[in-house]
Backbone:
């Protein structure tokens, strides 16, 4: 159990007036308790109570759950809804998290008609957004491994290799370092780079191609994410010009980041540079996303988020320009917000690089 993290969540619950919080998000439960269960369709939940009388709900198939709190163990043949509803009957205002399936929530609402159910994910998500010292070290190491692997991958690329083959080589690099992928690797050659979420296919690498590599490993439960754009054999003049625009946008946004800056203003710092050069319509996504135990966590660096960055936040800075049918450029780092700036977690060169 992690009493410090649980205490921070209880503070958030108190701010919202919640007397209980019903959590089914396996990442949040592990974050708070160090217990990891993959329940499938069965119920695995932690109920936090303002009284401190916390309780787990588990299935017998999960084996022995060693916890500091009571564990209510159920069989598949039990009336699970009635058991859970009875245990929660003292609640009057209950928060539920964003992953609680309707097949559990709706019957619980019917059984506990006296209780008001509200979305309470923010109580955990806002705590998870500010990384503690242990998490910072894990994210630094995940990014270090990711840096190492993208350099090895870049040197491995050769004429005729396909995107799928390049991604498979990356998988081997991660496995050799005790990691998995934190998301499906994106390796895009030529015109495929104009699709920000291109799925690797059998496209071969050819001279003059732009190469967009967006990859992330998962190390001891924490995710890395970075993007570099390279060129093979030579960089056409138009590609080089656009690359340098994206690089300036990336560097300007990172220089602007610090605690207290509005996320929308960080986005605008990069977006305005791209728009001023006439490519605003070709920057088609948010500037960044929060990251930690999951590659996308609560929080966006976009025009829609008026909240401010806080010390301990980790998010991506990834401006891009995508010209359909031609090529794309994206440059992405993860940044750790500090009081007076940010720590850039990626250290692979961002200068225009021609491979081969």
Residues:
């Amino acid at each position: 159990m992690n009493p410090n993290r649980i205490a921070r969540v209880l503070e958030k619950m108190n701010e919202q007036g919640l007397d209980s919080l019903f959590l089914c998000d396996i990442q949040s439960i592990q974050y708070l308790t160090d217990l990891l269960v993959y329940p499938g369709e069965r119920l695995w939940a932690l109920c936090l109570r303002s009284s401190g009388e916390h309780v787990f709900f588990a299935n017998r198939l999960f084996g022995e759950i060693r916890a500091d709190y009571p564990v209510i163990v159920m069989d598949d043949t039990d009336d699970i809804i009635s058991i859970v509803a009875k245990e929660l009957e003292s609640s009057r205002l209950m928060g539920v998290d964003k992953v609680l399936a309707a097949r559990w929530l709706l019957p619980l609402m019917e059984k506990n008609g006296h209780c008001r159910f509200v979305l309470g994910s923010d109580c955990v998500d806002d705590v998870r957004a500010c990384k503690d010292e242990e998490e910072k070290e894990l994210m630094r190491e995940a990014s270090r491994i990711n840096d190492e692997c993208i350099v090895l991958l870049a040197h491995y690329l050769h004429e005729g290799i396909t995107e799928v083959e390049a991604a498979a080589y990356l998988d081997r690099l991660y496995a050799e370092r005790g990691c998995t992928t934190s998301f499906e690797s994106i390796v895009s050659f030529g015109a495929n780079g104009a699709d920000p979420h291109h799925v690797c296919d059998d496209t071969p690498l050819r001279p003059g191609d732009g190469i967009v590599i967006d990859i992330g490993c998962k190390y001891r439960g924490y995710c890395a994410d970075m993007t570099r754009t390279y060129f093979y054999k030579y960089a056409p003049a138009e590609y080089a010009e656009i690359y340098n625009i994206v690089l300036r946008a990336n560097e300007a946004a990172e220089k602007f980041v610090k605690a207290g800056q509005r996320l929308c203003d960080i986005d605008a710092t990069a977006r305005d540079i791209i728009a001023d050069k006439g490519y605003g319509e070709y920057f088609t996504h948010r500037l960044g996303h929060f990251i930690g135990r999951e590659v996308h966590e609560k929080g966006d660096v976009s025009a829609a988020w008026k909240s401010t960055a806080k010390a301990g936040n980790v998010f991506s800075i990834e401006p891009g320009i995508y010209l359909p049918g031609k090529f794309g450029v994206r440059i992405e780092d993860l940044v750790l917000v500090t009081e007076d700036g940010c720590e850039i977690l990626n250290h692979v060169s961002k200068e225009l690089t021609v491979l081969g």
Remarks:
- The longest strand covers residues 226-232.
- The chain has a mean pLDDT of 97.
